[in-house]
Amino acid sequence: MKPITEIGAAVVGTGFIGVVHVEALRRLGVQVHGVVGSSRERAASRARDLGLPPAYESYQAMLDDSRVDVVHVTSPNHLHHEHAAAALAAGKHVVCEKPLAMTSAQSAELVELAARSGRVHAVNFNIRFYPVNQHVHGLIAAGELGEIRLVSGHYLQDWLLLETDWNWRLEPDLGGELRAVADIGSHWLDLTTFLTGRRISAVMADLSTFIKTRRQPAGPVETFATDRGADSVARQIKTEDAATILLRYEGGARGALTVSQVSPGRKNSLVFEIDGSTAAASWNAERPDELWIGHRGRPNELLLRDPAILNEEGRRAAGLPGGHAEGFADTFKALYAAVYRAVAEGRPGTGYPTFADGHDEMLVCEAVARSSREARWVEVERAGVAPDPRLKTAR
Ligand code: SOE
Asked: For the whole prediction, is pTM greater than 0.90?
C-alpha cells in the first residue's frame, strides 16, 4: 500500500474546476506534479498562480512523467475520451470530470478500457460527497424514509442568462449535443440515483433554448467568468438553456426535474426532495450543512451537519466539526479521499463514482435528448450493461 503523500497526480485543464482539483489534492497530501493547459501561456500562468512547477509542455509529456500515478481530466468535454483513454493506456489511474464523454459509445469504450487496465477510474460526481448527502444515502439504505415514491427538485444557475454570456459549453462540437442537462443536470440525476439506490428507467423531457443568438467574445472565456472584451460576433445557439424532465426510476418511484442556466439569482442551486412512505428528506446545495427531514404525525426536523450525529457514511465525508461550514471545494477532498484509498491499494475500490456511473449518465442524457426531439417517453437503453451490484435494482 502506497502512502498518499507518495502518490503523484497531474491535472489537465486549467479552468476554475481544474484549480479546485489541484487544491483538494494538496489538502490530502498528494504530490501534484503539474498541470497541462489548452495553451502554454495559460498553463504557465496557472502554474505560477498555484505555486506549481512549470506546466508540462504537452499532454504526452505529462504521461511520460513516471512520478504521475493519477491523471485528473478537467479539459473541455470533447477531449475527455481522448485524454482518459490515453492516460489509461499509459498505465495511469484516472479521475475524469463529468460528463465522462461526448456520446455513450465513447463512454462505453472508456468503461471497457478501464476494466481491462486494472487501474482506478472515477467520475467527478462530487455532489454526492457533501457529508449530509452521504448521511441521506445511509438513511435511505437503512429504510428510514420507507419505500421511495417521489424525487423532485431542480438545478438552477444564472451564469448564462445574458446574450453576452459565453462559454465553450454553448458549442455542441466542444460540449456535446446537450449543454445544461449534461453539465449540471447530470449531477442531479446521478445524485438522486446514488441516494435512492435506483437507476432512472425512462424520461419525458422538454428542452428549451430561450437565447437563440449570443455574442461570442474574441478569445477564451473561463466558466463563470464575467470579464469579457468589447469585440464579439453573433452566434446562433442550438444547445438548451433549460430543461423540464419527468422521470421514472427502477422500482416504481417517479421524479420531476428542472434544469436551467438562465435563472436570475440562482448561482448554483441544486435542490432535491425525496418523499418516502414514512418520511422525506430535502437538501439545497446553497445551504449544504442543513438537511430538512419531513414527518407525518410528529414535528419535522432540521439537521445541522454535525459529525457527532451523522451516520457512519456522513461522518466519513465530514472534515470539520459541526457549525464549521463545509462547502463545494470540501466535497472534492472527500471524493478524492475515497478514490485515493483505492489508488494507494493499486486497484479499483468502492465508495466513489466510477466510469460505469459516468456511462450510465450518458445513457440517461441520450434518452433525454431523444425524448425531447420525439416528444415522447423514452426508455433508458442499457442493453449489454450489467446490473450494478451497488444499487437496489440489482437484487
Ligand atoms: C458550470 O455549470 C459548473 O462549473 C459545472 O460544470 C460544475 O460541474 C458544477 O459543479 C458547478 O457549475
From this structure: yes
